Amino acid sequence: MKIEHLNLTNFRNYKELSIDFHDGLTILTGENAQGKTNILEAIFLLSLAKSHRTNHDQEMITWNEDYAKVVGQITTKNSHFPLEIILNSKGKIAKYNYIDQKRLSQFIGKLNVILFSPEDMQIVKGSPSLRRKFLDTELGQTHPIYLQNLLEYHRILKQRNSYLKQAREKNSHDPVYLEILTDQLVEAGSRVINYRIEFVKNLEKIAQPLHYELSNERDLLSMVYKSSTSKVDYEKKDLIEDQLEELFKSSTQREIDQGITLYGPHRDDLIFYINDNLAQQFASQGQQRTIILSLKLAELDLVYAIDQDYPVLLLDDVLSELDDRRQFILMSKIEGKVQTILTTASVENIHIQELKNSSIIQVKKGKVL
Ligand SMILES: Nc1ncnc2c1ncn2[C@@H]1O[C@H](COP(=O)(O)OP(=O)(O)OP(=O)(O)O)[C@@H](O)[C@H]1O
Ligand SMILES: [Mg+2]
Question: Per residue in 291-318, pLDDT tens?
Fold first, then answer.
């Protein structure tokens, strides 16, 4: 899959931008705060209909303008189409092949991207919500049904939470109604959990050997999708729904007392181990970077296995942080297969052969040279 062309209007510090991307490697270089990451953000927006660094779409509109427009020309292994997003004060419009997509879930994933940005360094040691977001982002792109399930789960969760809160305030509740909400929550929640367990297993299978190679055959990476409570054992895969049902049955009063849903995939976590030690506790900066890099590389193969097409790889400021050996391994995995767009303040920190065949684009004050 490739993005051949990108057009921006009133997007961040770009009044107007038209840019072609190399089939292989495109390098966006320039001083800090010139607009390199903004270009990657625009591509990410075409893929997931949201930014990777803000939840407020309006922030992406150029100051003092009332709309922003992003258009990309996409080529996949058997089609060619434009994607378009318009942001304005009313919200956003997403078009696939010139046609408005009423449901964003139908738009998301038409373009697949894997982004590796400095924010991802938080995945290993940051809060569980970041790891859930990591899972949701990747699963959402490749499995539209997962995304619908997840939205459904959050819709029911919200409804159930507000009912529990109300029950606490009134000091009374309708057990039948709560049971209906609980059943719906358990059903949607189990589907989300099952998708995530499967994804983590598949990801581990591919990431483990990559990580072993990247760590110079020193570190064995393993990962586990973990329930927020020891009362539910995800190893017993066929019994997840039953276990959750039991758990909610025995927790009704506590949930009402606290006015909130206490269990479910919105509280789960993804745990990384290196040589059976908890990475969250002891992994060094370099080890964390190696974990993330192997996850991202593994995702490339995982997407390929599903779509028979590689996603576009976006590397924000990360290549120059890797030592030469890791840069080399990374490039050897993607060369000739994966369209890659990377940003760096200075090309001098990048020591790869492929530099010769890449297109190097200078970014300066919201213009490309
Ligand atoms: N809504 C907006 N309207 C106008 N300019 C904006 C808007 N949002 C951000 N900017 C400008 O965009 C610039 C930052 O762009 P970006 O994050 O792409 O920089 P960068 O080249 O990646 O820098 P670095 O090397 O530091 O990561 C800043 O100058 C900022 O003021
Ligand atoms: Mg940047």
Answer: 999 999 999 999 999 999 999 999 999 9
